[in-house]
Amino acid sequence: MTTIKKIFLLIFILIALVACGTAKQDDEQIFSKDNKGIMDDFIFQLKSEKDTYTLNEPLQIYAQLEYVGESDEITIYHASSPFILELKELNTNFDFGYAMDTPLLSSTLKKREPLRIPYSFSGGYNEFSPDDYVQFVNKLMDGEFPIGRYVITGKTDFYIETDEAKQTYNMEQSIEFEVVEN
Fold this sequence. Notes:
Blueprint: H1 3-29, E1 34-39, E2 42-48, E3 52-54, E4 61-67, E5 73-89, E6 94-96, E7 105-110, E8 115-118, H2 131-141, E9 148-161, E10 166-169, E11 172-180
Parallel strand pairs: 3-11
Antiparallel strand pairs: 1-2, 2-4, 4-8, 5-6, 5-7, 5-9, 9-10, 9-11
């Protein structure tokens, strides 16, 4: 085998090993207390101050977007929020969507000054929803998280305009937390 072929083979093996290590790392981080997604000049984080909350304790969970590009500031375009925060309760397997108004708004992000939005429940039910689901949703709407294990999946949905075109940013992070009896 020629030296050039050996070098290409070595580079290919190194790339494959790095890719495998990265995939495993992403799987391990999906339910961490502090997740971070990076895309181009933006850092998206979904954070919980704690892994476990007691019954009726306010959640300290928030989504955060930070601009780290070269300009002093940048304008992003989004619906009511650049974040979508979906909730799932793992014991009951109740999945709550995320309802949001969809006007076109803009926000100006200053470099290294994060936009931070606390989690608040946004979901509902209809006349076909089972009674236990309706009761659960009503508690969540009152700010009471019943005892259980939860996953919040946070997503970004915004775009910027460049000289060339619109560039859309969709990043996703998930965190898990538990609510226990006092």
